[in-house]
Amino acid sequence: MTEMLLKYFRNQQKQVQSEKLYDTQCPYCSMQCKMQFIEQTIVTGKKYMTIGKDNPTSQGRLCIKGMNAHQHALHHERIKYPLLKVNGEFTRISWEEALNHIKENFTKIQSEDGMNALSVYGSASITNEEAYLLGKFARVALKTKYIDYNGRLCMSAAASAASQTFGMDRGLTNSLAEIPSVQCIILAGTNIAECQPTIMPYFEKAKENGAFIIAIDPRETATTKIADLHLKVKPGKDAALANGLLKVIIDENYVDETFVQERAKGFTEVKEHVSSFTLEEISELTGVPAADIRKAATMFGKKETGMIFTARGVEQQTDGSIAVRNFLNILIATGKLGKWGCGYGAITGQSNGQGAREHGQKADQLPGYRSIENEEHRAYIASVWGIHQDEIPRKGVSAYEMMEKIHDGEITGMFLMCSNPIVSNPNANFVKKALNKLKFLVVADMFISETARLADLILPTSSYLEDEGTMTNVEGRVTLREASWPTPEEVKHDWQIICEIARVLGKGEYFSFSSAEEVFNELRAASRGGIADYYGITYERLRKEGGLLWPCPTLDHKGTERLFEQSFAHPDGLASMVSVPNSPQVPKEQLTEEFPLYLTTGRVMSHYLTGVQTRKSSSLSARNFESYMEIHPNTARKYDIQDQSLVKIESKQGSIIVRSKWSDTIRPDTVFVPFHWADSQNVNCLVSEKLDPTCRMPGFKVSAVKIAPVV
């Protein structure tokens, strides 16, 4: 058998006439794995493949998405020139014509409806340079307060919780390298085995070293399988479950009294709060046995080192921000912060979910994680941009709330980059109706996505193989994505598109960049002295050192491996604890006789976000070519749902039809549907418009639904 394989590979190699290697990194999850794209010329034509490349984060590993990422970049359906909608059909036009249409329509809209009638909808999948430029473009070129991005639907709960608790938000407070040494790990609402597969070896190594792993999830997943204890919580009850854990830690004297007294505030109020309920009450509320809650809390409390990781399962709820704060309460109470093997990790969903939220795409934010309402911050950024601080608009609203502004007629034009909001937003039918009301919608994308179908004008953008720039991964490590593959036909980079639109709008002097590196150097200056300080990071250093963890304030700074060793980022240096109610401020949907099941959503390994890219990959699409509903067999029988049959799922917001998939690993009161599909399979058509009052995160993880077989 071995001889046959060797003969096969020798024959394959003989066919290779030439080979070219291109350094790049994966465009998908926040691990940002380094890799090499290989183009081979063989006897019969061209052959392409992708292999991993050594790096500090994923150490050469790739998952199935990374190995096949090039398939969408080379896909024949890529947009390669500007497209204008004429009589309902897209027609090819020149870039000059496209820019003139933008100038004419944007100018007319602002003349008729006001400066804030234009809006910008960004992305957490674009580079730091492009995220920075998009924020500057909205405020300087368009002079509008309305800009937000799809990262609002991903990281806003964790970001706001960390900012309120610690005074700053970075994905991990420690580097990934510490995970194998941790003695107890809580994975709350995160299915890393499918969403960030190349991070899994860190946790597997920790388990080999004796770590006790606790998973919190209403489903059994590939991630919960590595856990020593699985807390199968009712959807939406994570904050209450954290209260139960905290109660045991406090009642059983696992509190680090010295840490709490010297480095935190609010503990007394939290202690009093958790004394107001019993563990049995928490068990009844969450569906988790009291003995399991006690065991989890005891294991975490008594271990010398411990880390907690949260992701969308906890965060994508109408109390997501305060729920995360409660898990941070546990870390503070046990003193597990600021030292080796002790810390917090928010498992970022999108490729640049960390960097894209640091430099100006958020409605209330300026570069360097500065506040747009802070006069000192406004003055500093205005000096970098060469304008007066009074020219910078004030804060706008969140991504979904912009859709409401469109529906109400306050916003009448939009520039949208690398996002697909009619699939990714809650109450998706409403979002589609709203976008159809716009007087002029410009979409910059690689493909005609479901949202791009509604556009008046589509602009062709470059892929990860072609677009050089920096990204900031799950650790907060800034990396340089090399990109030397040629752009096809008339495709332009996102940063070039932004600059060209600014030029025709008469703001070219503020956007006179000729390379991504030039943009990054201005970003460095804009971030200097801010919470997310990139000033000491350069392209040259990134090429030499393979990535740097921010803050990195000077050119000789090595980057910050571990946060909060001496103090937290609040002015008083203290971490802030808070009492968290068991019931949310914004009520979640409750089960009723009409809608008797919880619906929760999530990802599958072979797809990314709304699937616009991964559904263009034949290898990935073949693994999951349609959506499905995971349901417990007992529940399926109750509602006469056969395995692998079509089922209608309905909520107060709408209905979809997907195929059933029996699984005895999910709670009987819960069904699960992934969110990578559109149109009649778009699960976000079922999700309510209710938002977290702190961070404006929609409640994707908890909806009340009914099901019925399709006959």
UniProtKB/TrEMBL annotation:
Keyword Metal-binding among UniProt keywords: yes
Signal peptide residues on this chain, from the entry's feature table: none
Entries under Gene3D superfamilies matching the protein: 2.40.40.20, 3.40.50.740, ADC-like domains, Dimethylsulfoxide Reductase, domain 2
Gene Ontology MF: a single term: metal ion binding
Domain of life per record: Bacteria
Cofactor(s) needed for function: Mo-bis(molybdopterin guanine dinucleotide)
BP GO terms, sorted: respiratory electron transport chain
Cellular component terms per the entry's GO annotation: membrane
This protein's record includes keyword Ribosomal protein: no
Provenance organism: Peribacillus asahii
Protein name as catalogued: Nitrite reductase
InterPro entries for the chain: Asp_de-COase-like_dom_sf, MoPterin_dinucl-bd_dom, Mopterin_OxRdtase, Mopterin_OxRdtase_4Fe-4S_dom, Mopterin_OxRdtase_prok_CS, Prok_molybdopt-oxidoreductase
NCBIfam families xrefs: AssmNtatRedNasC (NF047855)
UniProtKB keywords: 4Fe-4S, Iron, Iron-sulfur, Metal-binding
